[in-house]
Amino acid sequence: MFETLLLNFLFLLFPVLIVVIFFENRAYPYNNKLLVFMSAVTMVLCIAKPIKLEMGFIYDLRYIPFILVALFGGYWSALPLYAIMNIYRFYLGGAGTFPSFLFSTAVLLLVPYLSKRFIKLSSKRRILWAVVIAAFTMGMYLIILGLMTDKLDQQFWRLTVYALLTHGAVMSIIMILIEQIITNIKNRDRILQSERLNVVSELAASVSHEIRNPLTVTSGFLQLLNKSNTITPEEKGYVELSLLELNRAEKIVSDYLSFAKPQSDNMVCSNMKAEAEYTKNIIMPYATIHKVDVQFNFNNTLHKSYDKNQIQQCLINLYKNGIEAMKEKDGGTLTIDISEKKQNIVISIQDTGIGMTKEEISRLGKPYYSTKEEGTGLGMLMAYSAINKVKGIIEVESEKGKGTTFLITIPT
Ligand code: ADP
Ligand code: MG
C-alpha cells in the first residue's frame, strides 16, 4: 500500500521535474499545453495504479493534477483533463462510474472558478489554498462514499483520515515544489532585468554626454543658417528637415541620459505631489489631441527621497504609452491614481487602450522593444530603471483590446 502511494507520488513528480529541467527558461510556465498534457498522463497513471486499502476500498490521487491544472489554468485547461478522466473511467466501468462522473463534474464547475483569484494570491497562500481545496475535495468524496455505504464502522473512519492526510501531504509537497519553481523563475528574471539596466545606464552615461554637445552645436548653426536671407526655399526645406531629425536625436539622447545615476541636486524628499501634477499638466495637450480624458487622483502623505527628474520622466513615459495605446481606439480614459497603502506609495496608471498579450508584457522593458513605427523602445526601460532605483516594483495587468494597468509600488 505504501509502495503504491510512493508510485503515485512519483507520477505526480514527473511533470514537475520535466518543467524544471526543460522549460524553466520560458517566461510563463503555466497555461502551457504541454503541461496540461503531462498532467493528463499523470492523472491516467494515478487512476491506473490506485491505492488499494483493506475492505476493498480503493482510492487514488487523480484529483491532485486535476485541481492543480484547474487552479493554475482555469476552465479551458481543466476541460481536457475532465474529458480524459471520464472517458478512461467509463472504459474501466464498474459500480462507481456514474457517481464518479457526477463528482468530477462538480469539481470541474467549482475549482476553475477560483483560478483567477488563486493566481493573484501570494505564494504561501496559494500553497495553503491548494491544500485546503484538495482536502475539501477528498472530504466531499468521502462524505458521498459514506452516504452510499451503510456500515460506517471504525475502519471507514480510519480510511477517511488516511485519505485526507495523504491528499493534504502530497498536495503540499507538490505545491511547495511548484511555488519554488515560480519563485526561481521570477528571481532570475529580476536579476536579468537589473543586469540589463546596469549595462544600459553605464553605456548611457558615457555615450549621451559625448553626443549631446555636437548635437547642440550643429543644431545652433543650422538655426542660424535657417534665418539667413540668401538660402533658397528648397534649401530652407532641407535645413528644416535636418533640424527635425536633430530634435529627434536629441530626444533619444535625453531619454538615455535619464538612465544615468541619480544626481544629487535633483534629489528631493517629498510625497510626489509636485511631480505628479507637473507631469499631468505636461501631457494634457497630448491627451486632448488624441481625445483622451484624464482622471487624476492624488491621495498620499508618505514621503520618499528620489531623483525628481527621473520620476517625472518615468511618469511621462507611462502616461504617454497609455495615451498612445488609446490613439488607435479613437480616445478613451487615462486614470492616474496616487495613494498610500501600508507604508507604500502606490501609483496606478490605467488606460482603456489596445492592451497587450502575456507575451508582449514579458517583453516590456527590454531595450528597443517597440511596436510603434516611431517608437524607440526606451520609455519602459527608463520607467523600470527609475522605479528600480527607488526600490519599487512595477506590476502590469493587461487584456488585449481592453486596456492596461501599470501598478507601481514604492516602499518608504
Ligand atoms: P515606445 O513607446 O517608444 O514604443 P516603450 O518602451 O515606451 O517604447 O514601450 C514599448 C512597447 O510596449 C510599446 O511599443 C507598446 O507596444 C508596449 N506598451 C507600453 N505601454 C503600453 C500600454 N499602456 N498599452 C499597450 N501597449 C503598451
Ligand atoms: Mg513610450
From TrEMBL:
<dbReference type="InterPro" id="IPR036890">
    <property type="entry name" value="HATPase_C_sf"/>
</dbReference>
<dbReference type="GO" id="GO:0000155">
    <property type="term" value="F:phosphorelay sensor kinase activity"/>
</dbReference>
<keyword id="KW-0902">Two-component regulatory system</keyword>
<keyword id="KW-1133">Transmembrane helix</keyword>
<keyword id="KW-0418">Kinase</keyword>
<feature type="transmembrane region" description="Helical">
    <location>
        <begin position="90"/>
        <end position="115"/>
    </location>
</feature>
<feature type="transmembrane region" description="Helical">
    <location>
        <begin position="159"/>
        <end position="178"/>
    </location>
</feature>
<keyword id="KW-1003">Cell membrane</keyword>
<keyword id="KW-0067">ATP-binding</keyword>
<dbReference type="GO" id="GO:0005886">
    <property type="term" value="C:plasma membrane"/>
</dbReference>
<feature type="domain" description="Histidine kinase">
    <location>
        <begin position="206"/>
        <end position="412"/>
    </location>
</feature>
<dbReference type="GO" id="GO:0005524">
    <property type="term" value="F:ATP binding"/>
</dbReference>
<feature type="transmembrane region" description="Helical">
    <location>
        <begin position="5"/>
        <end position="23"/>
    </location>
</feature>
<keyword id="KW-0808">Transferase</keyword>
<dbReference type="InterPro" id="IPR005467">
    <property type="entry name" value="His_kinase_dom"/>
</dbReference>
<dbReference type="Pfam" id="PF02518">
    <property type="entry name" value="HATPase_c"/>
</dbReference>
<protein>
    <recommendedName>
        <fullName>histidine kinase</fullName>
        <ecNumber>2.7.13.3</ecNumber>
    </recommendedName>
</protein>
<dbReference type="InterPro" id="IPR003594">
    <property type="entry name" value="HATPase_dom"/>
</dbReference>
<dbReference type="Pfam" id="PF00512">
    <property type="entry name" value="HisKA"/>
</dbReference>
<dbReference type="InterPro" id="IPR036097">
    <property type="entry name" value="HisK_dim/P_sf"/>
</dbReference>
<dbReference type="InterPro" id="IPR004358">
    <property type="entry name" value="Sig_transdc_His_kin-like_C"/>
</dbReference>
<feature type="transmembrane region" description="Helical">
    <location>
        <begin position="63"/>
        <end position="84"/>
    </location>
</feature>
<keyword id="KW-0597">Phosphoprotein</keyword>
<keyword id="KW-0472">Membrane</keyword>
<dbReference type="InterPro" id="IPR003661">
    <property type="entry name" value="HisK_dim/P_dom"/>
</dbReference>
<feature type="transmembrane region" description="Helical">
    <location>
        <begin position="35"/>
        <end position="51"/>
    </location>
</feature>
<dbReference type="GO" id="GO:0071555">
    <property type="term" value="P:cell wall organization"/>
</dbReference>
<dbReference type="InterPro" id="IPR011620">
    <property type="entry name" value="Sig_transdc_His_kinase_LytS_TM"/>
</dbReference>
<dbReference type="Pfam" id="PF07694">
    <property type="entry name" value="5TM-5TMR_LYT"/>
</dbReference>
<keyword id="KW-0547">Nucleotide-binding</keyword>
<keyword id="KW-0812">Transmembrane</keyword>
<feature type="transmembrane region" description="Helical">
    <location>
        <begin position="127"/>
        <end position="147"/>
    </location>
</feature>
